[in-house]
Amino acid sequence: MAQSALKNFTDESLLGQPITLNNCDREPIHIPGLIQPYGFLLCLDEQSRRVVQASANTLTLLGMAAETLIGAGLGTLLEPEQLLEVERVWAKLGTDARLLGIHLGRVTGQPAYKLILHRYDGLLWVEGEPLSETSVSALDLPALNVSLGRLLTAESVLECCQVTAEQVRTITGFDRVAIYRFAPDDSGEVIAEDVREDLPPWLGMHYPATDIPKQARAMYLKNWLRFIPNAHYAPVPLVPTVAPGASRPPDMTYSVLRSVSPIHLEYLHNLGSEATMTISLIQEGRLWGMVTCHHQSPRLVSYELRDLCQFLGKTVSALLKTKELQDEQAYRLRIREAQVGLFDLVSTQANFMDGLHRFTPSLLDVLDCGGAAIVFDGEVITLGHTPKPRQIEEIVEWLRANNPHDVFVTDSYAQLNPDGKAIRTTASGILAVALAREAGDYILWFRPEQLQTVTWAGRHEKNQTTADGQIFLSPRQSFEAWKQTVEETSAPWLPLEVEAAKEIRLHISDIRLKVFNELQAKALSLTRLNAELERSNDELDSFAYVASHDLKEPLRGIHNYSLFLLEDYADKLDDEGVSKLRTLVRLSQRMEALIESLLQLSRVGRVELVVEAVNLNDALTDILDLLHPRFEQTRTTVTVAGPLPTVRGSRTSIQEVFNNLLTNSLRYNNHAEKRVTIGVASPEIRGPKGTGNPADFVVIYVQDNGIGIDPKHHENIFKIFKRLHAQDKYGGGTGAGLAIARKMAEKNGGELWVDSTLGHGATFYFSIPISL
């Protein structure tokens, strides 16, 4: 967010004024003119490299009054060689901080400080932070590597966040590490935490959007990490607060020592937190959530460990979209499986109503809800927690009078119909589809008011929330404020849930008429197709047997007898006769290889895929290990450009695609130094059939520096037994490998294609659906 946008949320006239709950949402928190006292701050003019402002605690920490430092350079604190080291940093410095560990050579006692440097608002910022006073264990890199692996392989957002909370607490030693996720209305919920055993959990804690003012959210987007080692600190002012010629204090957005709002400190006191650290979780430029750490006593965590935690925060931020897609795909798959079972029951029961509620899965199993109801032919059937039948009939009457559409969805029925207040504990949210609106036939799903499913997980005792008539924020106050925003409201219905309800309606609406007949016709057609496929598969199996047994056996005989003739009669034959026998041996070997390739191709179409989560990094590693001797023999270097994702598909067939493409890269390359690169293609890459949209597919590329392929042959190379070169060139081969690889890619729901020009290497792409 631009600096001007941050200023739009604040009121600079509040500088130096008392901050209360009534004006804290306009507090100019980026220009407080104050710092936390555990370190010192020097602001230097960019041009002159002279101090224009200094924190008032330099006398205590450095033995030099702030006033004596004004106008001086860093040479007052540093030896010449140290000053040169800092000067080298200035040249490339921006808002991202640089760390230097230095003994202040010209300060009495030469104290050791970590200097944190950055450039912003026309100033060079030098912040001095003492060495950590805590005894956090040394960084365990192997353990961190395992944790990063767990982050990458986590199958859900919650699992990814839980791993993050545990790792951050291990690194920092805080009593509690919690992860908040923001809702679309900017309210928040604790979705993961790692906490000291004797402390109460916060999991499930909610708070309103107003707890984090807009200007604070704007800063969280710019500065990923905020740290308060002692929440009872007395702020230290800058000297002078406003530099000569300036209209305001300097913008401390990226300052490590920036003093925070007194309202926030009061909130920390009410939480019982004496030290805190917060890390932003940002997704596509939006504040997705926060990692927040709390300790019941002051705690100074080293800058290096905080920086490592920030790295974890950025890593999680980069993974969030993928994890959310995994969550959505898992829920979509669960809905689809329940739908398939439900449709089967509906189609096989004499009375389709029985298929909707008497068996498993039922309507209640298709969507996440508290209850469901069927209103058909004047009968009301309920499943789970629902309003009373008469109340459901009143909902249907209201729908017939007020909703002209076949689908109705709301997360707050009480806001649309005052009578809904009476049923909010079971039906604040309603998703309904009409089977026959005029007749009052409906299927309805219900969700309870959010407050019925949320437990306050913070401290239950009543914090003191007033002082001299002034209300202060506290966990209890926050929860009460949040409750007011979600009363009579359920969790929202997701678009995929609405689509699932529509599909159910299409399958059962007027099932005795047109839809029923169409489904029956399709079922008959599918039955015929399955019978034909079974017959075809039987014939294919017979062919496979003949090819593997009846054809191979005589070929082996021809091959063996040809060898015997060479061994026993070569000395009795002339050169031409020996040459013909050798040709016969070679041709029999080639024919056997062709039959084997044909068999392999036929198996691809008939073998059922074993669909599973496939970590492409692991799958590729197995193939690279298998081909390693050939890489060494051919002087081939294989590079994997960045980590590969996890997909759903057949591990065996995906590995076969990798194997064929890598083998091709080795074979069709006449360079002394052969190079192959494997990675994830850019998002705009699409296959000939249109696959490749990042929302649905992962596209992998295998690129080599080999002989290349003329564009006119880009399709020919995927035809069975099609070779572009003579049989004795580039290591022989049957010409079946790419045909097999393409068929395997298509079997997985993707495609395989090539981009190449003659003499300039080739790049093969294959797409894999995120969910199969």
Automatic annotation (TrEMBL):
<keyword id="KW-0716">Sensory transduction</keyword>
<dbReference type="Pfam" id="PF02518">
    <property type="entry name" value="HATPase_c"/>
</dbReference>
<feature type="domain" description="Phytochrome chromophore attachment site">
    <location>
        <begin position="156"/>
        <end position="314"/>
    </location>
</feature>
<dbReference type="InterPro" id="IPR013515">
    <property type="entry name" value="Phytochrome_cen-reg"/>
</dbReference>
<dbReference type="InterPro" id="IPR013654">
    <property type="entry name" value="PAS_2"/>
</dbReference>
<dbReference type="InterPro" id="IPR005467">
    <property type="entry name" value="His_kinase_dom"/>
</dbReference>
<keyword id="KW-0418">Kinase</keyword>
<dbReference type="InterPro" id="IPR001294">
    <property type="entry name" value="Phytochrome"/>
</dbReference>
<dbReference type="InterPro" id="IPR029016">
    <property type="entry name" value="GAF-like_dom_sf"/>
</dbReference>
<protein>
    <recommendedName>
        <fullName>histidine kinase</fullName>
        <ecNumber>2.7.13.3</ecNumber>
    </recommendedName>
</protein>
<dbReference type="InterPro" id="IPR003594">
    <property type="entry name" value="HATPase_dom"/>
</dbReference>
<dbReference type="InterPro" id="IPR050351">
    <property type="entry name" value="BphY/WalK/GraS-like"/>
</dbReference>
<dbReference type="Pfam" id="PF01590">
    <property type="entry name" value="GAF"/>
</dbReference>
<keyword id="KW-0600">Photoreceptor protein</keyword>
<dbReference type="InterPro" id="IPR016132">
    <property type="entry name" value="Phyto_chromo_attachment"/>
</dbReference>
<dbReference type="InterPro" id="IPR036890">
    <property type="entry name" value="HATPase_C_sf"/>
</dbReference>
<dbReference type="Pfam" id="PF00360">
    <property type="entry name" value="PHY"/>
</dbReference>
<dbReference type="Pfam" id="PF00512">
    <property type="entry name" value="HisKA"/>
</dbReference>
<dbReference type="InterPro" id="IPR036097">
    <property type="entry name" value="HisK_dim/P_sf"/>
</dbReference>
<keyword id="KW-0157">Chromophore</keyword>
<keyword id="KW-0808">Transferase</keyword>
<dbReference type="InterPro" id="IPR003661">
    <property type="entry name" value="HisK_dim/P_dom"/>
</dbReference>
<dbReference type="Pfam" id="PF08446">
    <property type="entry name" value="PAS_2"/>
</dbReference>
<dbReference type="InterPro" id="IPR043150">
    <property type="entry name" value="Phytochrome_PHY_sf"/>
</dbReference>
<dbReference type="InterPro" id="IPR035965">
    <property type="entry name" value="PAS-like_dom_sf"/>
</dbReference>
<comment type="similarity">
    <text>In the N-terminal section; belongs to the phytochrome family.</text>
</comment>
<feature type="domain" description="Histidine kinase">
    <location>
        <begin position="546"/>
        <end position="772"/>
    </location>
</feature>
<keyword id="KW-0675">Receptor</keyword>
<dbReference type="InterPro" id="IPR003018">
    <property type="entry name" value="GAF"/>
</dbReference>
